[in-house]
Amino acid sequence: MPPLAALERFFERLFERPTARFFRTRLQPVQLQRRIERAMEAERLSTADRTLVPNRYVVHLNPDDLDSFGDFSETLAAELADGTLVFARAHRYTLVDRPRVDLLADPTVARADILVDARFADPIAGRAVGPDALRRSQPGSVREPPDDPATSTMVFEVPKPEGPRARLLLTEPAGDQREIDLDGKLLTIGRATDNGLVVRDGRVSRHHGRVASRRGTLVYTDLGSTNGSRVNGNPVEEVVLGVGDRIEIGDSMLLVESLESSGRGA
Length: 266
What we know:
The chain is an alpha+beta fold and about 270 residues long. Helix content is about 25%, strand content about 30%. Helix 2 crosses helix 4. It is elongated and about 60 Å long.
């Protein structure tokens, strides 16, 4: 999440939720819409010629808050999806399919709080993909006006690049070394035996980090480890890797020896 979005989220928690609790205010649909829009902005991906945004949104609400919408909740989800599409069009964002919004009762969410899980999902099977599909409203939603080419949000199939192949060299505190070949699949790293790469290092967390492919690149992500992660000596939470990069976890180190993507050298 970009720093600005994280700061905005902090102030939301600091002011909005306690105030709503104190006055026992009921969540309003416009609040849900704004949170979805913020989630869209936070997860957008910019390329050379377009900005991609998520098309699936799961809104987590306290069960009591969700119950307050009653039978209106199903229609509300459709209207939120319509509003999300309008927002994307207004900002000329690109979607892989018409937005879908689901409302989920989540006991772990505090009263008057809203958590939105935004993600990119494949187009729904059987649904036409193209500008014409965007003109079809969901059941119960308001009919949309014809598309204006100047403001339409184009829909297309997101290419799925082949995951990069890489070789990592692990050096543990005792000096033992192991080579790990990656074929584009997710690799979890930590002390726990359910990790793809089990590291014998007391300063490494049970689930310390992961290496995964993302849009043709190799990305390392720290999973909230106790002692943190460093790449080339710099503390990181998430970073794109290249040949020669050194991932330092605890007293162990992972060296990216080689990296290939889609048959081409990195």
